[in-house]
Design a protein that fits this description.
alpha+beta; Arc Repressor Mutant, subunit A; Glutaredoxin; 4-stranded mixed beta sheet; 8 helices; globular
Length: 254
C-alpha cells in the first residue's frame, strides 16, 4: 500500500447508518421482567420498602409543598418555654464543647429524646429555646438522622446490625429471633429493628442495646436479651464491649 493510500485509509470515517437500518443486537442483559422501569419512581413506589425495620425509606411529608402563608419561623422564648433543669444543664454543657453552638444539635436532640422518649414537638421546642435556634432547623436534623425519632417508638432501643460483616454470619436470624422473642414476651416501650453498620465488625453479629454494644450474638441469645430488658437488667453481662471482663470467643478484646 502506498503512502497516499495509507493516509486516505487513516482519514476514512465510516458512514453512520440510520438507526432503522442498524441490525438488531440480542439483549443478553436483564430480562424485561427483572429490568427496573425507566424514569423517576412513581409516588407510590417511594418509601414503601422496609430496609431498616418497619421504617419508610423517606421522611414523611417530603412531597408536600411548603406553606408560604405561614408566619416566619421564630425562636421559642426560653422564659416562656418550660425546660427540665437537668435537660437545660446538659444542653448548655454540650454547647460549651463547640466553637459554634449549632454543632451540639445532634447530642442535644439525643439528650431531649432520652428525657421525652422521642423528639416530640415539646422536646424540639425545649432544645430550640436553649440553643436559640428555630424548631424547623432542629426538625430538619431530626428527620435526617435515623436514630432520632420524630414519632414515639419506645424509650429502649435494640439495633441489630445486618450490614455486610454481620450479614455474612447470620445477623438476620439474630434480628428475627429477638423480634419474635420481644413479640412473644409483649415487650413494651422498646424498639427492635435492623441497623446499618455500627462499626463493630470484629464482634459480628452484634447489636446495640440502649447504646451498649453486645456480641457476638446467636439466635439463642434472644430470650435472655428480651428478659433482661423487661426486668431492667444488663443484657448478657461480660459480652458487652464496655465490660471489663469482655473477651472475644477466640481470645482478646475487640
Amino acid at each position: 500500500m502506498s503512502d497516499s493510500e495509507e493516509r486516505q485509509d487513516a482519514d476514512h470515517v465510516p458512514e453512520e447508518r440510520p438507526l432503522s437500518e442498524q441490525p438488531e443486537v440480542e439483549d443478553r442483559g436483564v430480562t424485561d421482567i427483572e429490568r427496573a422501569p425507566e424514569g423517576p419512581p412513581l409516588p407510590d413506589q417511594i418509601g414503601t420498602e422496609a430496609a431498616m425495620g418497619s421504617r419508610p425509606l423517606t421522611a414523611p411529608g417530603w412531597d408536600r409543598p411548603a406553606d408560604l402563608e405561614k408566619d416566619p419561623a421564630v425562636i421559642p422564648d426560653l422564659a416562656e418555654t418550660p425546660v427540665p433543669d437537668e435537660l437545660r444543664a446538659e444542653i448548655e454543657r454540650l454547647m460549651s464543647l463547640y466553637p459554634d453552638r449549632r454543632s451540639a444539635v445532634i447530642p442535644a436532640l439525643h439528650a431531649a429524646q432520652a428525657v421525652h422518649g422521642w423528639c416530640s414537638p415539646e422536646a424540639i421546642a425545649q432544645v430550640a429555646a436553649v440553643m436559640r435556634v428555630t424548631p424547623a432547623y432542629l426538625s430538619s436534623v431530626a428527620s435526617f438522622y435515623d436514630m432520632l425519632n420524630e414519632e414515639p417508638v419506645g424509650r429502649r432501643h435494640v439495633y441489630v446490625c445486618t450490614s455486610v460483616a454481620c450479614h455474612l454470619v447470620n445477623a438476620k436470624r439474630v434480628y428475627e429471633a429477638i423480634a419474635e422473642a420481644a413479640e412473644d414476651a409483649d415487650l413494651e416501650d422498646t424498639e427492635v429493628r435492623q441497623s446499618e453498620c455500627l462499626g463493630a465488625c470484629d464482634m459480628a453479629p452484634m447489636a446495640s442495646i440502649d447504646g451498649r454494644f453486645v456480641g457476638p450474638l446467636d439466635p439463642s441469645d434472644a430470650p435472655e436479651i428480651v428478659a433482661s430488658i423487661k426486668e431492667g437488667r444488663t443484657a448478657l453481662p461480660g459480652r458487652g464491649l464496655e465490660d471489663s471482663d469482655y473477651r472475644l470467643p477466640w481470645g482478646g478484646r475487640a
